[in-house]
Write a sequence for this structure.
């Protein structure tokens, strides 16, 4: 494990510890859930690239949607604060971690300006079985891609 991965895991553990424990019915190696989780994140990234705020917002959990209130406010926040997620040059899905029973998907982004960041997508299973994004913790790697 790289030093960055270890730091991210510690941050994620603390971050997840602040949230109430929720039964997610997620086990390590659950390929069906991993595929669904990646699909949700890919759909949101594609929506960002198409400036489709409604679709991007729809991939967020009810709590996130309530916090932002509207697709346009959500999109403005992403556009202004997370340019590498909003307009990535490349996206690499890494490990799916299980932290306190909750899935956290690592996604490595390279921005158009070649800055890199590692995003930790905290996922939440909905009552109908769908996965939605319940928060993202971003670590700027301070590296330049080549």
């Amino acid at each position: 494990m790289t030093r960055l991965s270890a730091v991210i895991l510690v941050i994620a553990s603390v971050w997840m510890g602040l949230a109430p424990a929720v039964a997610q019915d997620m086990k390590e190696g659950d390929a069906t859930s991993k595929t669904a989780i990646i699909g949700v994140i890919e759909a949101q990234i594609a929506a960002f690239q198409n400036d489709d705020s409604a679709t991007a917002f729809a991939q967020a959990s009810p709590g996130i949607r309530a916090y932002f209130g509207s697709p346009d406010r959500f999109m403005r926040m992403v556009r202004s604060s997370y340019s590498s997620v909003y307009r990535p040059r490349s996206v690499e899905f890494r490990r799916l971690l299980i932290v306190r029973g909750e899935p956290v998907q690592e996604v490595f982004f390279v921005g158009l300006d070649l800055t890199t960041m590692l995003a930790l997508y905290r996922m939440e299973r909905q009552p109908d079985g769908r996965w939605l994004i319940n928060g993202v913790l971003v670590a700027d790697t301070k590296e330049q891609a080549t």
Notes: The chain has one domain: 3-16+23-144. Residues 1-25 have pLDDT under 50 and may be disordered. The first helix runs from residue 3 to 18. The two ends are 22 Å apart (CA to CA).
